[in-house]
Amino acid sequence: MCTLVVAVVFGVVAPGCGPRVPLPVYTNHDGEEPTTVPFPPPPPRPEVIPDKPASEGVVWIDGQWVFRARRWEWVPGSWETAPQGAKYAPPAVVTLSDGRLGWHCGKWRTGGELGSK
Question: Cys staple from 87: which of 27, 56, 91, 104, with CB 3.0 to 4.6 Å?
């Protein structure tokens, strides 16, 4: 009984906890060659999302680690306008067939670049 009550309370209360952040339509990195990296990135950094700009169609893109000059650098999140017909492929770590690690940076994909997600 308690579980049901808690679920109902959270179901009613949780959706009203704050404004929703508009997010992009997501896709994957199918067909892209990852960058080989020696070790995975650190965990994402917590971010305070600034107020949404008044512009129409802006979405929040989370910050990400980018591998540059043999080390990971943090790139903060930002409000962006999606390119026409584009979907966002978020950053991803993959294990390559030979056991090495691969990295895909988050990026907008359009047209023929779009994955199947």
Answer: 27
Contacts of 65 (CB under 8 A, 6+ apart): 41, 42, 44, 72, 73, 74, 75, 91
So where are the chain's domains? 22-47+54-113
Distance in Å from the first CA to the final CA of the chain? 39
Looking only at the bridges linking them, the beta strands covering 78-81 and 101-104 are: unpaired
Minimal CA–CA distance to 96: which of 51, 43, 29, 44?
29
pLDDT in tens, 43-98: 999 999 999 999 989 999 999 999 998 999 999 999 999 999 999 999 999 999 99
